[in-house]
C-alpha cells in the first residue's frame, strides 16, 4: 500500500544539514560509528588508491583511511564541509587531497576517475538515490567498487511502523526513514555483499562491483 513520503530536493537537504552541522558529530557520531568503521575497513582492503567519499559530511571517517589511499570528499552542505576541513587540518590528514561542495547526483568528475566510491549514510539523503548510484558508477573505473552504508527500512514490526510514520517528515529530517534497498538498486542482485552492521543491524553495508 502506498504511503505519504515528502519529496526531498537539494535546498531541503542543504537546509536540514545547515541545522544539523553544529551537533551532527555528537548526535549521530557514536551510533553511526560501527558502520563507518566497517565501511572504511572495507575500502582499505580493496585494491586501488583513488577513493571518493560521497557525502563526506563533517569528515568523521577521514582519519580512518589507510594513509596510502588518496581521498576526495564531496558534500552538498557547505556548513558540514567547513567542519570536515577543520578536522583535516587538525589531524594533518595529508592523504585527503580534496574536499568539495558538489551535488552527488551531478558530479564534476570525469568518467572512471576513482577506484572506489563510498557513500556512508548518504543514499537516504539525496533526492534521487538511483541517480546517485548511476553517478557513482560513472566516476568509478571498470573493475572498481561501490560501497554503501545505510539504514534500510524494516520489513515489519514496531520499527516498520515508526519509519512509515516519520516518512512525511523527510524534508524536516533531511533523510527518508522508510528507505529500502530497491530505492537505490534497480536489481539488488547487483550487490556482491549485503552485511548488517552494529548496533543491532540498524545499518547495512552494501558492496557493488563494477563490471571489468
TrEMBL record:
Organism listed in the record: Paracraurococcus ruber
Entry keyword annotation includes Methyltransferase: yes
Residue stretches making up the Methyltransferase type domain: 52-148
Protein name: SAM-dependent methyltransferase
CDD domains the record matches: AdoMet_MTases
Domain of life: Bacteria
Key words, A-Z: Methyltransferase, Transferase
InterPro entries: Methyltransf_11, SAM-dependent_MTases_sf, Thiol_S-MT
Keyword Transferase among UniProt keywords: yes
Molecular function per GO: methyltransferase activity
Amino acid at each position: 500500500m502506498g504511503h505519504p513520503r515528502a519529496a526531498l530536493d537539494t535546498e531541503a537537504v542543504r537546509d536540514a544539514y545547515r541545522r544539523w552541522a553544529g551537533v551532527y558529530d555528537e548526535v549521530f557520531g557514536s551510533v553511526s560509528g560501527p558502520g563507518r568503521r566497517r565501511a572504511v575497513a572495507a575500502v582499505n582492503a580493496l585494491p586501488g588508491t583513488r577513493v571518493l567519499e560521497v557525502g563526506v559530511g563533517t569528515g568523521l571517517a577521514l582519519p580512518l583511511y589507510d594513509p596510502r589511499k588518496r581521498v576526495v570528499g564531496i558534500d552538498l552542505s557547505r556548513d558540514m564541509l567547513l567542519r570536515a576541513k577543520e578536522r583535516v587540518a587538525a589531524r594533518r590528514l595529508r592523504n585527503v587531497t580534496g574536499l568539495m561542495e558538489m551535488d552527488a547526483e551531478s558530479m564534476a568528475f570525469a568518467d572512471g576517475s576513482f577506484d572506489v566510491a563510498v557513500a556512508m549514510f548518504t543514499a537516504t539523503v539525496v533526492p534521487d538515490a538511483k541517480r546517485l548510484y548511476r553517478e557513482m558508477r560513472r566516476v568509478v573505473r571498470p573493475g572498481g567498487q561501490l560501497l554503501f552504508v545505510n539504514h534500510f527500512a524494516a520489513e515489519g514490526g514496531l520499527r516498520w511502523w515508526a519509519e512509515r510514520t516519520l516518512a512525511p517528515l523527510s524534508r524536516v529530517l533531511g533523510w527518508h526513514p522508510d528507505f529500502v534497498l530497491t530505492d537505490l538498486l534497480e536489481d539488488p542482485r547487483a550487490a556482491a555483499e549485503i552485511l548488517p552492521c552494529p548496533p543491532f543491524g540498524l545499518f547495512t553495508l552494501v558492496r557493488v562491483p563494477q563490471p571489468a
